[in-house]
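Feature request disguised as a bug report, sorry. It would help if multi-protein outputs had a clear separator. Right now it looks like this:
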Amino acid sequence: MITTLPVGSWSWETMTHRPDDNPVARCVRQTLDSWTVLRSLGLADGDAQADITALGKSEGTTLTALRRVHVSAARIAQGSELAEELQSLEPSQVKAVTIDLTTPGTYLRGGKACHAQKVFALSVDAWAGGAGTVTLETFSDVWLSHDARGHKQTEVQRENAPRLASALAGISRITQSRIVPSDPRTYGVPTVDGFEDFPDDDPDLLDFWYMLEVPRRTRWLLNQLPPGSRHFETCTQSPVTFVEVVAGSRVIGYLWAADNDDAAGYEPRTPAGDIALEAGTAWLTRLSDAKQRGLSPAEALRELSARQGDSQAGTVVAGSLRRAASLEDLQDLSGRE
């Protein structure tokens, strides 16, 4: 499963004492070097995207604030878009630079490579004076002894956990720093070489996907609606009908409806990355409008399915209407590769 919040994270504090230190170049280099470690182990593949912020030494000054800068994997050795976006900055005027890089990744299930758009995120800070921090976050459960639904996954962990351990060791080498696991999260307990194993308790007690992840992302989506907006019920005990939503050729989510409980909603397909969650704002706004006009959930689903797509929301796939035995089954599908 791929989650919207990190399953766990690790950080390394760095320091350089070079008198000619350039925090801009240092931030770019550490980002690309850490990304290269992930790529060398087959954990990251394809191009990435980055958010970049540079703060000036004058109080309250932001020199650069960019979102979703394309970063080409083919240009790691020759330089990159990261360096180009920051080349106009005068290093002596920079207080701090932060690069948040999100990378697609690959993990294994039964020897088969599976791909998701947001497996890891790297965050690198570089400060004038030589201090810095590298942080690695993972959004996948394949390193854990139990998956996000609380089911033991011995073989999946055996295939993937050693690769994560190698990545952590590799970043420790390039940063020449001690690794610091994050505080224990509900999703897992990070260690210096991965995660602690969960005890073999009742799977329902370890089902953080259904108990935590789904309610959290549902609340986030509903909070994007204007205060006081009418909306369909977000839960149902009945079977649901649903359609696929795509952006390009990638499925990013599912629109669903259940007339029995006056329920309808949008489930983001989290392996598709941030675009999946962000598309939900548009779909819930349209569902809210349908509710306001007195449409039933099924009528709203038919109307929205026939609507022309756009770059923010994506497009409903013609002929994709089908049925799930429960909303929980659909929510389970939404987190899987």
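(second protein starts here, but nothing in the output says so)
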Amino acid sequence: MSTNRTTILKNITSLVSIQIANYLLPVISVPVIWRVIGADKFGVINYATAIAGYFVLIVNYGFDLTATRKVAQNKNDTKVITELFSTVLWCKVLLFLVTLVLFLCCFAVVPFFVAEWKAMIFSYIFVISWIITPNWLYQGMQELHRVAVFNVVMKLLFTVAVLLAVRHEDDYFYHPLIFSAAQIAVGYYSFRYAIGRYKIKIIKLPFQKILRTLKDEYQVFFSTVVINVYTTANMVLLGALTNNAQVGYYAAAIKIVQIAQAVITVPLSNSFFPYVGAAFASGRDEGVQAAQKVLPIVTIVGFIAFTGMVVLGPWALRLFYGESITLSIPIFLILSVTPLLIVISNVYAIQVMLNLIMDKAFLRITTAGAIVSVVSNLLLIPLIGGTGAAYSLVITEVFIVLACAIYLYAKGINLLTWKYFSARTIMSQILTIFSSLKKTAN
């Protein structure tokens, strides 16, 4: 029991550490950066980052979900893992070349790229890191702790470097440059360590094999695209319809929300994904029951995070950014419910629908969510700016949760089982999950 409990606690702790490195450490530098460069330039670097995120999305191609699932189901088969590692790598290389062409074409048609070329190029360099970062492998193997310490150290160095480099308003472009460099270093270390740890050899693959893999995984890829559309369209459309300062206030608010999401809800969701996936490998009923047990745990944690943000958020914003952040507080309070909604939809959509290979339904639901997001943004942003973008995100997340729950219920799957929501039952289920992880940890 103690060995299994240690395994999941290591996974959760490692994911928390990585998320702290990705979000909390950079946020330490954000208040200083905000005061130095102001809302306008802060909006520029966040707008550039949001656009670069679409290129990252193409390179990742949903492998963080599909490849993780395959690793969890074949973690003891070295041949399968080796072939999968090479397949994902060559697919990402090909996809990166596609993004490079698209990125260069944007300079001919998007004025922002030309006006802020330094911010855009330095933000785009970040894409390179995702070619070589095999977090999907460590997550499937339940060994993210192997690279967590290095990740935290590099991001700590990034935070120090940014604080030293950005001393004047015109230095704002150093922020994406240093961030990209740090992430590439993390990716390189993770890549080299994975090859040694799992005795992986990079093998040549026929080009047809790469294309076939991309074809087989396209539904999950498009699902991640539309998910990204409804989670980032707010900032992109806000910048297109208003100005950089509005983006800056929205970005300042959502960064604090992302801390709770990244440090609390994401590690739980990602740690339970291999557990639920292994349960589905034993059978549909076993997988559904595992998800029913997980749902109360992540919901309660998400609700605690929501309550804490509502109570402490306005104070934290003023503490971090100063009184000039007042315009971000209403946006923050609206967005504070999103981590709770996201962690619930993760169980329905990622933990259950993807494990049951309901990829087409998942794509339809997320596509509908993207449409809801774009339409609501176009209606609300011209009226109330950043507040409208925040309302749009909440509306979209509620739609996704309800759509997934209704679809699964129509298929005879009801995850909302109240018997698992009592305190005694939840503690019992946590211990049961710890025990069950022996199957996936060994």
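Even a blank line would do. Unrelated, but nice: The mean pLDDT is 83.
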